[in-house]
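$ fold --in a.seq
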Amino acid sequence: MRLIAFIAVGSVCFAAENPSGVEFFEKKIRPVLAEQCYGCHSAAAKKPMGGLMVDSGAGLQRGGSSGQSAVIPNAPEKSLLLAAIKREGKLKMPPGAALAPEVVADFEAWIKMGAPDPRAEVLPLPPYNFDEARKFWSFQPVKDPAPPKTGDPAWSKNEVDRFIKGKLEEKKLAPVGLASKRALLRRATFDLTGLPPTPEEMSAFLGDASPKAFEKVVDRLLASGAYGEKWGRHWLDLVRYADTSGCNSDYPVPDAYRYRNWVIQAFNDDKPYDKFLREQIAGDLERPLPDDRGSVGAVSAVIQNPDRQGGDQRIIATGYLAIARRFGSRNNEFYLTIEDTIDNVGKSMLGISVACARCHDHKFDPIPSRDYYALYGIFQSTRYAFPGTEIFPHAKDFTPLADGPDAARLMAYQQETSHLDDRLEDFTARREGKDLSDADREKEMKAMKDRITELEKNAPAVPKAYAVSEGTPVNARVQRKGDPKNLAEEVPRGFLTILGGAKVPLDEKGSGRRELADWIVENPLMARVMVNRIWQYHFGKGIVGTPSDFGARGDRPVNPALLDYLASRFKESGYSIKAMHKRIMLTRAYQLASDANQKDAAIDPKNDYRWRFDRRRLDAEEIRDAILAVAGDLDASMGGPHPFPAETSFKYTQHVQFFAVYDHHQRSVYLMQQRQRKQPWLDTFDGADPNASTPKRSPGETALQALAMMNSGFLDEQADILGVRVSMAFPTDEARIAYAYRLLFGRAPAVDEVRDCVKYLEDARAELKNSTVAVDRQGRAALASLMHVLLASDEFLFVD
């Protein structure tokens, strides 16, 4: 029997159903209500007819002026709405033509399954009082508070510690002692590089008794190329990076990797964060653009640049916008791509949910729909590279990373194949060629297909960027309820009113992205949001616990003075992310042990005030990379393009989608990331969802993860390679075990651990004598089995 829970919220009651029921509602019921009923029976109607509002589950169950519910879950025979659309009583709805029988049947089925309805009730919103709204903590200018005086000045290693200690004293919390040097080096090395320290690095740190020993470690790790691979992955989580488009057939995007590598290099170069953001929004606009970006004749003007490489990199940076999700099988759902762009800009760069205002004024934060469409116009005026879809399989509007004739050939190829795709679709739908005979139509279509085949055979091998460029400047019109076919008033392009409300100048001939980049980096949210993210990635939890929501529904900062102090120092450093790492990691708070303290835990169970360091599990990429590293099998080179099939062969459909896994032994950040099917290893260990911004990874441990560590072919392979590594390094079991412990755990094994491991090897060798494993391979197999056990241990998978 299926149970349906009815949850009361005030006077509102709604059904909490299973996901399949909600999906049925979204596909079959909501569209009909919106199209046929909302005009007269919703919050948007000036006076809902009969007092009935059908734009929420609460409205349907409350009913209209008759006092009877319009929908009674599980009782279609008692539901007035069903009677009305069946036209069985006095009330016959909708006016005019009756609904199709299959639609009526859908409503009856929906009511029988409990009328699942996820819609919240839409209540009229009062006009925003922006003066009052700006008093909210996150919209206020960043202050520069002085560090507080504390009762134990010697406790603090720097000013940040004084803010921490002040809160600890206020809450009557006693911090634990410092972590061991071994634990501290392992913590810092994984934090900054995503890799374990080598035995040589551990020995050097343990042997360095100087006061600045840990500071030297931090400097060394920040200078490592592995730093950008680790911290670039954090940013790629936020911007939902993927190597496929996300459309129905999930078209590959072979050139997306350039943006991934740009992000990694930007972190390694310590590119100032404000410049880092500007280039992703409008890097292509840092050089002159011709009036007609799309014409082949303008190519030479577009691409000639004395700073060829620098210009290319700024173009590649706008891959941030280009990697927005694509939808459907055609190219006519671009409004959803713009929504995805606005949603990500809001969450990742501003820490606020702007996209909630697409269909109506934001219910919680002061963001009217007009502000959403002010941003929408900027991106509507931008030309996004098109990776291809089922109906239009050829890529277009990619930016050539070449000069003169090569660039012209690429742009000409893109334009002609795109034009032929359009014409073929028009012929197929009989929008064009309808006056021709069937024979002539077929002849014309064959000629187009032959021309496409000829073009594909001679496709220019010119490097190109999955990026954006300037389109036709246009102001957007408000879309009523987010429907692009139901347009209201035009809105000038501009920024959020709560953050200044600046408008694109009337004489601006471009999209407005350059101005948008300025507005983003010059408002108080930008620095606060980023320093909070850096803090979160070091400590596992931000000063604000909702790192992508600094709005009304988000958490308040547990230490607001510290947050603003860090934001002020961030600006003072020229927005150096590496300087912020060093400031945080040299604190006593970062160097605390992960020991438990029952008294503190009773006062502050979530450790919001940092009385200890939280132990954490390695994330998906760290686990894989650490295994490869200790086995000596990690390829440290920077990843390049993936081995996709030739672009001219892309003929994927929603029924025959693109799926692939390209494994290698480089860092996991270079694994191919697909939107429709996640990479298996990363999926198992809670890797980021490439369809949506991921501000925090799931910290959970699951049975599936344990099974993967015990049974995966990858672990078998790497355990064997690790066994070979330790066996070639030392001749005895005891010495090999000691070396494995130094590689995996950064320490020497205890006497009882050596004893247990030796016994394990003896037992394994005895068992293998009765197996089918060749005699000359049994010793190697026993050692590989022990290495597998060590790799799957908690000590290897967790950081203290």
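$ fold --in b.seq
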Amino acid sequence: MACCRMILAALGWLALTAAVSAAESEAAALYGDLVTAQDAAAAVRLAEQGEAGLPFLLQGLDSGGRVAALCAWALEQHPQPAASASLRALLWQSDQVAGYWAARALGRIPDPDNIAALARLLPEERLGFWELAADGIPRLTDLTVRGQRMAAPAPDWMPNLRVAYAAMESLGQLGGDHAAATLLGALENDQYLIRYGAVRGLEQIRHADALAVLTAVSASDPVLLVRVAARRAVNRLLGHEPAAPAAPALPTAIAFIKTADRTESNLGFRDSYFFPKTPWYAWGENLYTLTPPQPDGVLKNLTNLENGLVQGPQVSYDGRRILFSMRPQADSGGFHLHEINIDGSGLRQLTSGNCNDVDPTYLPDGRILFSSDRTGYQEFYHQERSRALYVLDADGGHIEQVTFNPNQDYEPYVLRDGRVLYSSYRFYAQDGSPGPVRGENYGLSRIETVLRFILPDGSGDQLFYGAMRGSFFSPLRPMPFSDQRSGWHRRGYHVGVSVSQAAEMPDGRIICTTPAGLTLVDLASGPLDAELPLFPEVVNLAGGEEVYIHNYDAQNPVGRFTSPHPVDNDWILVSHAPWHDLRGSAYGIYLFHLPTREMRLVYSDPAFSSVHPVAIAPRLVPRVIPSTLPKKRPETGRIYCNSVFNSDLPFDHAQVKYVRVIEGIQMGLSINANAAWRTRALGTTPLHPDGSFYVEVPADVPLRFELLDEDGRVLVHETEFNYVRPGEMKGCIGCHEPRHTAPGNALPLATALPPVPTLRQRGDLIYMGQPRNPYSTLYRD
């Protein structure tokens, strides 16, 4: 009997040895897939194996880079205490995605050392952070090996802003007095992202001081995002748990585009990147419908192109037709507007010509608004063909240009009140002041894609949201000559933002994409306190390529979102690609719940990205706004200003005596960079004592203004372009004033007199661009 027991024991040991060996072999194979292919599924399966996978996960954490990020991400889902030391070491590396997921993982592993390491990411210096993997950031050389406690950071080492944000939330998960004290202190930090993380952390801690402090924050924090999070936290602490999300009322079908190569994080010309690139219209290979919109729905190819491209689907108000742009042959011709019935019948072409017509949308009166590069000129910075907005008559017989920005206008969207929201790229150039790098003299460059709105006839053009908001989305790296801050450019003097893909929610908020990915914009508090990023930790600078010094797409720890489409006030359809998959075919279509960030898969094709989902259903027809422009169009319009002193620009008001009006002149299609642009001095008008002026100007041309002193020296050069339509009278309260500010002089002195003519005349001064000193040489026409 004893012999039998010995035999059975030996067999059991052999079986255990074989099992361990098999587990180790499988773990080794998974780690090989993780290292060679950066396979996210392999990382998760390693973490699921427990002790067998742990040695390989630790090796991956110590290797750094994408592999370390994937291992930390897997451990956040399947935490293992033995990995704590290696995870703590990642908190101080230059790879912010690895650090972000390491902080998240440590929040799942209760340990005093983990709390101390996360708390150390809140520096004593309130602005002591760095952002992105920027040049000049020191790297630690004394990080520990596996199993050893991490050495204290060097005194001049700064934690990464977005890793510190993740640490705040993780401290809330871990709890305890040390964590609570850190989070309460973080509410005093100057970085709103840190305060936001602290609020979300305190929401999870039942600390005696949390309720009172969060109540105060909900009323007084200067950033809307933090106030809203604090209100939610207060409700949770009071026991008011939010109800489970109700299922949205889905349409019977959706239309969308499939594309084999979609790396950009948003649609539109800018592609979430502040400089222009080769014109890109966010196209795909074919237009599809999915009925019903769920993974097993019936898929139908409406266009059946073999070598063509489609772009910008828009469903008619009655839900029966789809308007879109198509290029039947990808290697020839341009994009032109087409319309098709939802069953795939009745395809017809609406526009033609040597141009690209894209981003079409129906106007409520039956006409069609779209973006086109048929302008015949190039934008004045990188010389791509400029795009403006055009209106096409319902019968297709007449096309009229309605915007006149010399850069790019695109993605028009009709609001329920009849106004047209659109994205507008604006390049404001260097202002000539000294830059932060010795020997450079570029000055401040504002490079922005913002939201503007017009009436359907192009009149009433004004800013909606986005100008000067680059510092909100990338808040680091102070510049010595400006209160703007930028963290994305190594030289530091560029200020940029990209806001596009705007759509109106039923409650009037705007869902769009920004440098923080999906963002709600609520202008109830004004355009300087309007942003509600759904994932504020996202760095959505995108492109899927090396841009200057970084692959910014790889710095995004959440994933890419593109082409949001509202379903109701809580749910949207959106295309999403996970953070760990930068392939062009990685986007699937999801239902996204805005309050909870829950995502439900609607459709995914592993071989293609599925983008730009739109509901196929009848929808409310917006208000029709008749044109107020005269039928017999004059060649001029009028502009008045209540007071140039209503301004946040620093200048001596007492010195301002005159206002000069200048016109931007496009020179047609040129092959010379920065040489297709001229500036004409149209005229000068005296400034009235109350700061008002009133001028007659040419219609349908881009205009700028300058404030001059008594000797004609420029005190302020306004870099914003404006225009008026024929016969339009446009007024403003001042320069940079809040839109709803009441003017101090309701009847400005200037309007008591006829407008001063500032019109083209022979002999006008024209500034000609030069290779080294643009727009500085004068000559007479």
